[in-house]
Amino acid sequence: MAAWSSYTLDDFLLFSLPTYERLFELHNRALWPGHLLVLVAIVVLVHGVLTPAPANRTVYTLLGVIWIWLAGSFFLMRLQPINWFAVYLAPVIALQGVILLIYGWVGKFQASVPASAVGRWMAIGLLIFGLLGYPLSALVLDRPWQEMEIFALAPDPTAVATLAVLAGCGRAAPWPLWLIPGLWCGWTGLTLWALQSPAFFMAPTATVVALLIGLAAWLRRRTAAPV
Amino acid sequence: MITDRRSLLKAVVAGALGGTAAVLLATGARARPHSRPVPSSGEELPLVGLGSWITFNVGDDQRALDGSAAVIAAFFEAGGRLIDSSPMYASSQPTIGYGLRKSGYPAQLFSAEKVWTSSGSAGAGQIAQTRDHWGVRGFDLLQIHNLVAWQDHLETLRTLKAAGQIRYIGITTSHGRRHELCAKIMATEAIDFVQFTYNMADRQAEQRLLPLARDRGLAVIINRPYQRGALIRRLSRSPLPVWAADTGAASWPQFLLKFIISHPAVTCAIPATSQVAHVRENMAVATGPLPDARLRQRMVDYVAGL
Questions:
Q1: Test mutation, A1, A26, A79, A82, chain B, max B CBs within 10 A
Q2: The listed CATH number (3.40.50.150, 3.20.20.70, 3.20.20.100, 3.40.190.80) that belongs to domain B34-304
């Protein structure tokens, strides 16, 4: 027990920041021109979210497929060689995909109360951050553009975009759907902090924002519910 | 004054040797590192080896693989021998294998590996996989990483040693952890090597493990000499003392490494790096003068005062 309490986050690091960041360049190179498919997915996602009657089933099905794809393409194929723990993370990521798919198929979307106008626009802002801001942050942080972390190909922007959808782009989603993306954002934040990356705060901050939007929607739902 | 043919010959030879020495000193080339013997065999090991934690875990990134291979080549070129790794370090083992293939498996290689699995029965399989990663038939040294399942693995290692597949057996710990158990194994089991953390910010090993290793005739490998660079970053904010030249150190990393390898019970320190310049800087530490006890105390006092 005393031995375990002496461990710090730094002790669990297996790779350096340059190695981790370069991983995304190698990933982008390997998957090109799959990025064009990602563009299509982004258009479908944004359209599904912004349309007056949100296409929840389409949006959640799409996100579910993307999470399952990430489990194999990123966690098992890309991350695992430098982080053996990715073998244990991959099933958890795939599980999130399955949960999203199930919710997309059987979720009772009409029964839930939508987020407020402010909450909805904040969630849309968060979604834009996940889809556009996250990849562009590489340039702000003076990383090569080839290292951009892109929605559907990299876990962090995908988790942020998913949290944005869950928070209120459509209607606030049940809490079990939040668990894995939220935990991942915390995990990646801690990892980047230990690696001394200036980007360590992005995913955890996005999670906090999403939680606040979701909490506000939940409070609205409780207020609106008949006694 | 040269008075006869014999004197002339002596002068020519002396001049040639002196000139060669001057060139060697000027270039730093072929200056062999100081070494210490492994107590159980008398085999000499250079005081500085090469670690692989984090730095060689580069996956299948060809550019980084080539960079790591260059580090390994520079290490051998500077007279290095001991390379240390572990199954815990993810792709570090295949990276070392890649570097060794590119260097042509130099005869001077002293391969130090570890077994790291909580299942005693899985140890032999893991060691076989490690051999494949390195591309070698056996290891010079196999250590039990962080004392995990140490009793079972010790049995496996003794079998391998008896079969001639490994030459030495060792145990490891790091970060100052499990020193009690480590000392117990050192005192009671027949092992050749022990590896633990020792540096200017973590001198706990001076109290018990280093004297015990000396008493028991164990070779000592020191990990985390720079605390994964944190110690260098911290000290670099302060000036290197003028008298650092007396220790033979020209930089903070050299100052820190000089302190470690000058401890008489230390056989080898294993800094890890991904930079050729840094591996050369580290190896140079083992070629110059080493601080004596008085100078070591001065080094401790100076760092403590920062």
A1: A82
A2: 3.20.20.100
